[in-house]
Amino acid sequence: MKLEVGKDPMNNLKQKVIYHLSGTRKVLDTSSKTAITISHQTALSVENTIRFEKSDGYRLIIDGSVVNKFIAYQQHGINDKEAGGLLLGRHLKDGSHLAVDYLSEPQHGDKRSRFGFFRGKGHQKIAHQFWDDQNGTCTYLGNWHTHPEPYPTPSITDKNDWTNVLRNDTYEGNHLYFIIVGTIEIACWEGARNSQVYTKLTEHK
């Protein structure tokens, strides 16, 4: 997904979605200023949703509310530090399509700098809590972090971290997904278990 420089991508949103670990989310209708609580299992948010095409031809769908969080952490300012966390979601229907509809955000135990991000243990606690709240219906899908560059490219440190995650983390299937949020482009790479080859996914229009 590419964002136009100088334009606020939030201006066109009709609703503001606020997630809660309880498995519900409150939607603030900006026209009526009223809050509505809806189930986490409802349809994906439409605004800003990104669909990447996986190597198997199916989709990795990034919910609009997650994309909005990515946008909020973009490093536009010279003092903005890298941010990151875990990607959580679910398999859709027959399990071929994947949906990322929740993420962990920066925690107190993280190490953040202009050009670096190290996840602390707080993210794992959030993942476990989310798993419990969703009665085991969610799954771990990968990681995300930001870069202070328009079109992000994974560094050697990034790839080493991804390799470590693929080899040592517990997850369903044979693939994980790694998103880097640049100041213009939000890019995604697919990694396979026991492999050090990472494929950049194209956005499905």
Your description of this structure?
- The chain has 205 residues and is α+β, with helices and mostly antiparallel strands.
- The chain has 3 helices and 14 strands.
- The chain has a 9-stranded mixed beta sheet. Strands 1-2-3 form a 3-stranded antiparallel beta sheet, with no helix packed on it. A two-stranded antiparallel ribbon has the order 8-9.
- The longest helix has 13 residues, at 156-168.
Number of strands: 14
Strand-and-helix sequence, N→C?
Answer: EEEEEHEEEEHEHEEEE
Between the first and last Cα atoms, what is the distance in angstroms?
Answer: 10 Å
Shape field: globular
Helix content: 10-25%
- How many separate helices? 3
Overall mean pLDDT stands at 78
Unreliable residue stretches: 2-45
Structural class, please? alpha+beta
- How are the strands of the largest sheet arranged? 13-12-11-10-6-7-5-4-14
Largest sheet, in brief, is:
9 strands, mixed
Task: Tell me the strand percentage band.
Answer: 35-45%
Specify Rg, calculated over alpha carbons: 16 Å
